[in-house]
Amino acid sequence: MKIIVTGSLGSISRPLAEMLIAQGHQVTVVSSDAKKQGEIESLGAIAAIGSIADAAFLTNTFKGADAVYAMIPLSFTAPDLGDYMHRMASNYKQALKDANIKRIVLLSGWAADLVKAENVEHLFDGLEASITIMRPGAFYTNFYQSMDLIKGKGLIGKFLTLRYFGLWALLTGKTGLLMGNYGGEDRIVFVSPTDIAAAVAEELLLLPAGKTIRYVGSEEMTCNEAAKIIGTAVGKPWLKWVLLSDQEMLRGLKMAKVPGKLAETLVEMQAAMHSGKTLENFHQNNPKMGKVKLADFAKAFAIAYHKK
């Protein structure tokens, strides 16, 4: 099969490309970074250098493909996340339609249907194609964004934003803390990008009718249980995950000079997770869990933590 993988060589797209190439498929990897071309080609893939903001580029890249994996990277510089997401989704839809793609796997988020700005899934309605929406849980790799703060290099007493789910961290003396307007004893489904890649690789070879939704997770636990696993791996077993109110979270984001609409969206995402609605939706779909446990990821995290 001829398969297009967007997302450059990111935490999902790289292992996905490697899996598909190992299966004998012809893989094209889309990247906006021309410096990635050599690395992409060294994997045995074709490099397509361009931006998903360019619908014409996407159309030309997609032509002749049997399937496309589409993802929209979140922007933390766009003043209006919702507008950005909708523009990128519209580009994808136009290109997929013009290129007559019959199999589409779209990366979404497990709270996407609950957060207005993030929910662009409906924009793909109307395409004459088999579409699977992937809704993964909270990425293990988000913990990398808290590394400096766990080490004590953050600004004591001030909040600093962490990638995607807007986690927060604060270090006071010897006590490490993760903070957010979800946390504490909230139960969360965490997921390894490798498990997401494996699920996407499975879906790309299927052809279900119409639109389907697939949730992806690796392990379910409370936020404090997750913090303890990460903390123990780096020698700080006292690490806790403190629950903030929505108002405290919003104030922290604004203090960190996150654009207003983006800050509100991040708070809304976390509030959906704290409410338990995301977990309820996950359980209703009863997906099979992936293979990579948080303790496995924590070993790799600890190596990177101690090297930094």
UniProtKB/TrEMBL annotation:
- Which residues are in the NAD(P)-binding domain? 7-116
> What Gene3D superfamilies does the database record attribute to this sequence?
NAD(P)-binding Rossmann-like Domain, UDP-galactose 4-epimerase, domain 1
Q: Which InterPro entries match?
A: Ergot_Alk_Oxidoreductase, NAD(P)-bd_dom, NAD(P)-bd_dom_sf
Q: Mind telling me what this protein is named? A: NmrA family NAD(P)-binding protein
Q: What is the lineage of its organism?
A: Bacteria, Pseudomonadati, Bacteroidota, Sphingobacteriia, Sphingobacteriales
